[in-house]
Hints:
Chain A is an all-alpha fold. Chain A is built from four helices and no strands.
Amino acid sequence: MYKNSGFISFVLRRFTGVVLVLYLFTHMLVIGSATQGAAAFDAMLKIVQGPVFKVMEIALIAAVAYHAFDGVRLLIVHYFNVIDYRKSMFYAAFAVAAFFTAIGGLLILQLLLAAPQG
Amino acid sequence: MQDFKVPLTADTTILDALHYIKAELDGSLTFSRSCRHAICGSCAMNVNGRNLLVCKTPLTREMDGKGRVTIKPLPYLPIIKDLVVDRTSFWEQYQRVKPWLIPPANVPEKEFRISPEEVEAIHNAETCIMCGACYSSCQVIAMTKEYIGPHALLKAFLRVLDPRDAAPGERLADLSGEDGPYRCHTIFNCIDACPKNLNPTQAIETLRKLAQKRQAFEVERAERQKTLALPVKSGE
Lengths: 118, 236
């Protein structure tokens, strides 16, 4: 195993990519329940609005943010001659993703705490 | 994994240590080496998790707090014995990119005229010693041996950018398949591993860009080769 920042970014990119695909299926399952009538849809929504799913949504934001900004990083590498700054760019992509995850996470936590329980 | 104790001086290289082990401690230890001054590319190994040439690396540089150095064969390649790996796939991929120069129709009587800018664009790629450090650090190679690999793509880059080469379009077309530069995941391990400080990732990015404007590049090259064989005038 050859480990450095490039390896970590590669593993995270692949992992978050798989997470996003899996999320897509779950998302279609939830939205697709609307075809079975309003009651089925409401029941499904009730499940996914529980606190466990809210925490999972924060993880989803992290995956989306990291995957997106890592992609931006690779586009910058492709179009500009910045390979010498590869390690800094990896940390920058990570920091920006962490920043957006924190904002999104706080908003979700706020909603979760404000929501009437039960 | 075996442990050996070797004598240490300020100028002991890792290769010296291996020689000492083979001569004094365990004659069965097998490793490949030849020139001992970082030009043959035989002695690339994985030391403390990094690929490097053991002949030019001082033992003291790699020692941890307890004076230990971990030497392993190049990763992701079949091990033949001890520190010797099977490089068959490495050489097969090298052959695949036709690493030789395809000369133009009009070869000059004396030298070709190549500008300093054209030489600079090659980024010293001609100094690659084919040690395999980049190849065996590549995560894509870890997953598939079908990938051409950073070493061969660097060589393809060298030939494509060489103004003397008469078939850059053909080369770029050959590389445009799924095993070429588009398979690179931009992990940068090859740059970190290269003992000659070369930049295979930049070469791969350049090949990707050129492959997208292949026909224009071919026309440009044909035009360039008209002036390549002009005689050098005195005083220039």
